[in-house]
Amino acid sequence: MAKMVLVSLASASTSSRVAAAIVVVLGLVLSLVVVCNGGKTSSFVRKVEKSEVMPLDSDVFKVPPGYNAPQQVHITQGDQLGKAVIVSWVTVDEPGSNTVVYWSAKGIKEMAVGEVTTYKFYNYTSGYIHHTIISNLNFDTKYHYVVGIDHTKRQFWFITPPEVGPDVPYTFGLIGDLGQTYDSNATLTHYELNPQKGQAVLFVGDLSYADLHPNHDNVRWDTWGRFTERSVAYQPWIWTAGNHDIDFAPEIGEIEPFKPYTHRYPVPHNASGSTSPLWYSIKRASAYIIVLSSYSAYGKYTPQNRWIEEELPKVNRSETPWLIVLMHSPFYNSYTKHYMEGETMRVMYEPSFVKYKVDVVFTGHVHAYERSHRISNVAYNIVNGNCIPVKDQSAPVYITIGDGGNSEGLATNMTEPRPAYSSFREASFGHATFGIKNQTHAYYGWHRNQDGYPVTADSMWFLNRYYNPDDESTSAQHY
Ligand SMILES: [Fe+2]
């Protein structure tokens, strides 16, 4: 466009040259305005001190009273459609019962019996970890459930999702890298009190940060289970594995990656044909959610790669219009912390994400917040030099939401200048919600912990990539 203006200037009379010059200046000013609107680094500067881990005697870690009382109760989706729930809990005195008693307002009391497991980690022995699947539930129904026996029964409830379908509203919460600090507690409280009312949490990895304690003190997996129970006993959290969930510690003889994580947090990977709990998919309401593992082999011919190559073509957008991918390490991250760690996986998987029009990719790992424009970087082939990400309306929005509040503190250092692909970035703790309204529209909002519960510090109306692949970036708002 600039070239065309210069050509017209050369052939113009003096007066028209002046007019044309004004046009050029105006054009430059306008283009600068466009560039400035293209993205933003928030002016908020947060404290850089590490966040303080809540002490073991904190009320959020309280052990429920009574002999062998179930603790660390948590639920997750138990099948591919949302008609099953996995209920998990821990007893410490003896194995006790594996039974869950459950009922809806209209139904009679039913029972499901599961199994119990334990594991050892260096000098730690776990409690009795129970996993029971409740199946054949009705959609969109509130169920009460009880775990434990005799005097130590504990009762909770959950609501099953609506039947999978193209026009079904549903709101997901988004939390990552939570840990168990005072900031973690603030994040969870903000999520619970957010009037957007998340109905299930998409958790993008790094749960307890037990590995930062001496010998990966697994007591900190237990305290994290008790801390989060107040949410995850009542609504499913969909789990993604992060690097702090690997617990690989050969120096103390612990060489089985993800041992505490996989013993404690089962997922319905078999239902989606996955051979590993570290990658799987579920359908929930109008969303198809694919969970990937940044810390498992993902190259050509690996189990995870074979699975995703078969998985993406299966997604039927007429049934589930919204295609969401979760993993831990971001493809696009403009903070200096963990810079380019997701690059090798991006090279492998980004072409498929664009081809199958993934709506949004949520990641954690970087302890800050960032939302990208719709961009892709798939043209580069080593020799052609096309290595700059370009706007691409078939590409996902990449959102880093690793700002749950763990003890490592915020990632405050950013690469400068801000890359053009980054729409908004800010180093503050918080969480987000993704509210699907229908098959074409979803309202996304990021909530920072310093604000009131209803405030969205960054928001955008998502247009579905399959049904309405227009540029929706002008709807983005942040402050
Ligand atoms: Fe991480």
Keyword list:
glycoprotein; binds fe (ii) ion; Purple Acid Phosphatase, chain A, domain 2; alpha+beta; 7-stranded mixed sheet; 27 strands; disordered N terminus; 479 residues
Bound molecules: fe (ii) ion
Spans where pLDDT lies below 50 across 5 or more residues = 1-16, 23-37
> Remind me, CATH topology of one domain?
Purple Acid Phosphatase, chain A, domain 2
Spatial extent as radius of gyration: 24 Å
Task: Calculate the terminal CA-CA distance, rounded to whole Å.
Answer: 32 Å
Q: Quickly count the helices.
A: 7
Tell me what the CATH architecture of one domain is.
Answer: 4-Layer Sandwich
The coarse overall form would be globular
Helical coverage, percent range: 10-25%
- On the 0 to 100 scale, the average pLDDT is 92
| CATH homologous superfamily placement of one domain | Metallo-dependent phosphatases
Secondary structure category: alpha+beta
Widest sheet: strand order?
1-23-19-22-18-17-16-15
